[in-house]
Amino acid sequence: MRQRPQRDWVWLLALLALSLLTGSVQRRAAAEGEAPWFAGFVRGALVPLASFIGRALDARDAWLFGIASAPEVLRLRAENARLRAAVALYDERVSELLGEVDALRRFVSLPPVPGRSRVAADVAASFPSENRLVLSVGRRHGVRPGMPVVDGNALVGLVRDAGERSCTVEMVSSPTLRLGAMALRNPPAAGLLRGESLTKLILEFLDFNAPVANNDLVVTSGFSERVPRGIPIGRIFQVEESREFGSRRSQVFPLANLGAVREVWVLR
Amino acid sequence: MKGWGGFLTAAALLAVAAALQGVATRLAVLGASADYPLTVACTLALFGRPAGGAVLGFAAGFLHGCVVGANLGYLAFSRTLAGYASSASRSLEVRLSPLVAALTVAVCTIGAEALELLLPPAKPLLGSLGDTIGTATYNGVLAIPLYALLSRFLRPARP
Fold first, then answer.
1. d(CA B64, nearest CA chain A) in Å
2. Higher-confidence residue: A35 or A191?
3. Do B131 and A20 touch (CB under 8 A)?
4. Of residues A23, A47, A57, nearest to B72 (C-beta)
5. Cβ contacts (< 8 Å) between B84 and chain A: which residues?
6. Distance between CA B69 and CA B60 in Å, rounded?
7. What's the gap in Å between the CA of B89 and the closest CA on chain A?
8. Where are the domains of chain B?
């Protein structure tokens, strides 16, 4: 009995060492754009359960919403059908124009533009405080690290690591994510975007004299192998400049509702 | 908490807690989200010895980190300490009750979350403090029914 407290300490120290070891394995795997094998195993077992709980909550929300606003639901259904028909028309025209662009790029021996095809995914788990999402698609569906993830309106984040059937997404709100972006102007003002919080991103401009103003739309700059140009990110709501340091930056409000995103597209 | 029954109960509860963590923001109350694996680990730890508490804490951090894809080293490290502290708190010889369990879980949550503030990247102190207090309160409230339920099936180990 007298040895027990000592044994507790040994267990504690061993587990703390094991924690640091697993962290180091995770960092090494992340450097290669993969999740460690044990994380893939745990996610494989728990993501279906998380998805099930998420669907149960969706059903509860839909039921409550349906009771509270039945006439509104009917109106929205009709509007949804009209919009689907309109989108079908545009889709045809857009794919025709994209085909032309691809043909012209091939003609001058340029590589294809990334992000042309897309994979629909459910958000199996959402961790806004860690700026992470877990999606229900993985390498099996052609998802690779670095691919952009969008919701209906705007960029949500980039795939961080991909397992066989699931992947994690680092949201644009993450302070550790750096992304080429530009304010849509003539000429466009390019810079580097990083996250600060779910409602505030920071765009640091490369040119101190970049002509930007509040309400400018910020989109991806496309200076990347995986992220295409022109995906909307947010709108500028404040411009700050520091003449001493020769820097100019703006605060950007993200267009995607990062705290409540449920379904997304991964652009391949 | 001993034997296969205890092990399976702990494993099942931690698995459900880790899955629930994926929808934690949808179950938020007044902007505060719970940390389900940490709550389960710290509450279960009250029924075992400190070594068991450390194992439970490690498992909670490990599952949480694997599902989120977040900093696994930090999560497992901080939760191991929290589980150990939760179980070791019984040496204070305060009679266990749901309220004591709630307080223990809340304090352990604050300790575990405070470690995160030391890690880069730097976070706004006031915002993080507010989040931590919210999570600790939520965890403490959840610990009350959880402890009451578990105490019907499990017997606390002697401190």
1. 10
2. A191
3. no
4. A23
5. 8, 12
6. 14
7. 13
8. 3-23+33-152
Q: Is B90 exposed, middle or buried (0-12, 13-18, 19+ CB in 10 A)?
A: buried
Instruction: Give the pairing type, strands A118-127 and A247-254.
Output: unpaired
Residues A137, A143 contacting (CB under 8 angstroms) = yes
d(CA A259, CA A62): 19
ipTM: 0.85
Which of A215, A207, A29, A225 has the alpha carbon at shortest distance from A111? A225
In Å, what is the CA distance from B120 to each residue of A49, A266, B74?
Answer: 32, 29, 11
**Is residue B28 within 8 Å of B52, Cβ to Cβ?**
no
Q: Please indicate whether, in this complex, the C-beta atoms of B67 and A128 are within 8 angstroms of each other.
A: no
**Cα separation, A93 vs B156, whole angstroms:** 69
Judge whether A8 is closer than 8 Å to chain B, CB to CB.
Answer: yes
Query: What is the spatial distance between Cα A253 and Cα A185, in angstroms, rounded to a whole number?
Result: 17
Instruction: Write the pLDDT tens digit of every residue in A54-86.
Output: 888 888 888 887 788 878 888 888 899 999 888
- Answer yes or no: are the C-beta atoms of A232 and A219 closer than 8 Å: yes
CB contact under 8 A, B15 and A54: no
Query: Cβ of A98 under 8 Å from any chain B Cβ?
Result: no
SS (H, E, C) chain B: CCHHHHHHHHHHHHHHHHHHHCCHHHHCECCECCCHHHHHHHHHHCCCCHHHHHHHHHHHHHHHHHHHCCCHHHHHHHHHHHHHHHHHHHHHCCCCCHHHHHHHHHHHHHHHHHHHHCCCCCCCHHHHHHHHHHHHHHHHHHHHHHHHHHHHHCCCCCC
Report whether the peptide linkage leading into residue A187 is cis, meaning its omega lies within 30 degrees of zero. yes
Identify the bridge partners of residue A242 per DSSP, sorted by sequence position: A247
Taking CA–CA distances from B116, the nearest residue in chain A reads A130
- φ, ψ dihedrals at A77, nearest 5°: -60, -45
State the pTM of this model.
Answer: 0.73
Say whether residue B68 is in contact with chain A using an 8 A CB cutoff. Answer: yes
In this prediction, what percent of chain A has a pLDDT beyond 90?
Answer: 16
Check CB contact of A124 with chain B, cutoff 8 Å: yes
For each of the domains in chain A, give its residue range(s) and CATH number, in order of start: 114-268 (2.40.10.350)
Are A50 and B67 in contact (CB < 8 Å)?
yes
